[in-house]
Amino acid sequence: MLTTTLARALAGVTLCTAVMLSLPVQAGKTLDTIKSRDQLVCGVNVALAGFSSADSEGKWSGMDVDYCKALAAAVLGDASKVKYVPLNAQQRFTALQSGEIDILSRNTTWTLTRDASLGANFVGTIYYDGQGFMVKKELKVASAKELDGATVCVQSGTTTEKNLTDFARANKLDIKPLVFEKNEAATGAYHSGRCEAYTTDASGLAAERTIAKNPDEHLILPEIISKEPLGPLVRRGDDEFFAISKWVLNALIEAEEYGLTQANLDEKKTSDDPNIQRILGTAEDMGALLGLDKEWAYRALKATGNYGEVFERNVGNDSQLKLDRGLNKLWNQGGILYAPPIR
């Protein structure tokens, strides 16, 4: 039996928790700005198939783009209210720090250095990647460890450049990096024969091979030489917008786990599953804790579908890249994709 003192203490904790949950959440200055202009400003890659690229009519698509659409739908109620700002590797962090963009969603690797020194917070991992190499088949190279003496094209201002140096040193290879500020210049030099190999994230290699003049002439070597968890970033100092950005990504992942798709959301609103009810806002109001309404996640999912749908449409079997999900499968399907619960 609880002592009187302990019972009173627990009652106090319960009351305190209830009061905290009932307090209105402050929107945060970033969300206030977004709502005031009625538009989310999202920094994206200039052109990377599967992640962010614009067609001839200026319509953007890709995994990073879809995340921005989901975020806009959650906070503004309309996935089309996004201004996309194309940024190269050198521009991206300055654009976020200066306030030119609200969020950076540009295939950016989460590292300790970036996490601790850029004044930004990584929202989470949208794609687990790793760095690889591509060569022309005519070189008859089967392994990255056969690149001793080779010139390798690489973009500056990226984790890729340092990874290449580390790989060469660790394997005692005399690799000569040929560094370019813009990725288009690096790939152009590779295709023109200035380099024996081109290195970047494996997803980027697949994208580049797809758009090559003769894709079958190029081989992506088997080695993956790094961990590249790619994800969006927001400015540090606005915990409210950080939380919103984080939970929109989590909602896309958790929705797939519970079988919620773009097509069945309305049907699932009658579900008795408490987990689905919380995601769709038909029972507990999870949005209030984020400074949003209860249908924030429903709108995000209605705009893009769940994580699996976003993946397959942009980089998976329904795309030109046809990448295997691999590590990007859900944690209960053999991958490492795992979202904290919406509860």
TrEMBL record:
The keyword rRNA processing does not apply. SMART domains: PBPb (SM00062). Transmembrane segments: none annotated. Keywords: Signal, Transport. It comes from the Bacteria. The keyword Signal applies. Residues 39-268 form the Solute-binding protein family 3/N-terminal domain. Residues 1-27 form the signal peptide. Pfam families: SBP_bac_3. InterPro entries: Bact_solute-bind_prot3, Solute-binding_3/MltF_N. GO terms for biological process: amino acid transport. Belongs to the bacterial solute-binding protein 3 family. This is Amino acid ABC transporter substrate-binding protein, PAAT family. It comes from Thiothrix caldifontis.
